UniProtKB/TrEMBL annotation:
It holds the Pfam family DUF535. One of its GO terms (biological process) is DNA damage response. It comes from the Bacteria. InterPro entries: DUF535. This is Uncharacterized protein.
Amino acid sequence: MSSSESVQIPLETERWPCLSQNEFSYLPVPEIALKAGLIGTRPGWSYLRETVKLEVRARINSAATRKWIPYWNSTPLLTRLANAQPGVLKKIYRPYLSARLNCQQRLAVLTSHYDFIAKRGLETLVLRAALRLVRLAEISGKSGSLYQLKLVAMGQMEREGELVLQLLSNEVVIYSVAFTFIADGVTPLVAIGCLQGGRSDCALQ
């Protein structure tokens, strides 16, 4: 596919309320902090261990940290995204997409992705997908099987990509693809971190 070509997927907007920029304006927007990345960690020694690891990594990569946390507080929707999936705050300190990327490169990749989302006006859709699966399309196959295309953000396959598209048949996952948008000059690229088949017997068939 050439760079001038694009694939458009018709969003079934009637299946969820209007995706407007002001949709979540009535919700409070608490400022996010690095320690929020520990939400969901088991209490006790696990929490202490993860706290030490996160603080040490943040200090070692202090230059990246000084850009990373303010980035998530730079717009209300970015802050809501980080509050919805606080694990994103740890991503620049761990392997992501490729083991060859260093912390500064991971910072550049991740901010590039969310800048792309913002420029395309997709922040609210991604926020919805960070909170729950969003159905994008539904079609009937030749055999009468019903197929759905669903989007999940930030939570699944968290080291392989920021967005996951799932193809399902009768609510059974057939394929999942994790990907991240990356800016390469003026042309955005799609970096695919993982393509995974379903694990159920129905998916294997």
